[in-house]
Amino acid sequence: MTVFAGQGDAHSSMSLLWRGPEEPRTGRSGPKPALSVDAIVTAGIAVADAEGMAALSMRAVGQRLGRTAMALYTYVPGKAELLDLMHDRVLAELPTGHDPAAGWRAAATAWAEEAFTCYLRHPWVLQISQARPVLGPAELGAMEAVLRILDGAGLAPRQLRGVVAALWQLVRGMARTAAEARAAAVDTGVADEEWWYARSTQLASLAPDFAERFPLLTALESGGAAPEAGDGAGDLEERTREAFRTGLAVLLDGVQAAAARS
Fold this sequence. Notes:
This protein is an all-alpha fold and 262 residues long. The chain has 2 domains: 10-91, Homeodomain-like (Arc Repressor Mutant, subunit A, Orthogonal Bundle), CATH 1.10.10.60; 102-191 and 232-261, Tetracycline Repressor, domain 2 (Orthogonal Bundle). It has helices at 10-17, 37-51, 58-65, 69-72, 79-91, 104-121, 137-150, 157-188, 192-206, 210-213, 215-222, 233-261. α5 runs parallel beside α7 (137-150), α6 (104-121) runs antiparallel to α12 and α8 (157-188) runs antiparallel to α12. The longest helix is centred in the middle third of the chain and has 32 residues, at 157-188. The two termini are 41 Å apart.
């Protein structure tokens, strides 16, 4: 399920994204407001974290707040605008303040590790396409932070653009695989051990010459890169995290080499 951000009214979404902090009513007469934009966004994130993107609706958010869906529309025009706000709120959790004194590579590694963990806290965010950015302050702030880190490598602008895109997609792609490893058994009703055992048994029977036909795959599996019967979702997730770290190191090796050539 892929969701595109920015499908709501442009003026409404951008105004809500770039609004100032909501002012408390301290010292004012009258009752405090029952709802706020921030409270609705927080509730929306809670729904998506607990039940997934498919469960997100204005009605579900209203129920979490003890209100009807209609009560939310005074603050947020609709689900599309709410999704933009939720997306930007989550991206505000991405690190922005790494110390450049440790060097750009250490900072890039730390950023990627923290971003990977952030996406696993909110896996529904990975279903939001990057084709159309939200253009909120947190999203742009996250991009600025990555540029600030990689600026220390001394890359040309064209190279820097490509590296930032590759780094972000490595983090998102591997985090999505790890999130899917967590969800597979629950969503399909089949445990990972059962799934791998059934298919590995069939493969051994149907392709007895597997090692001769696929020698590189066989070598990779014997090295522990492929899951085997008895592995659980936790093992699959950990393997994905290890693959992420390996890929990240190789990507940064390439950045370092490109910087040296420059």
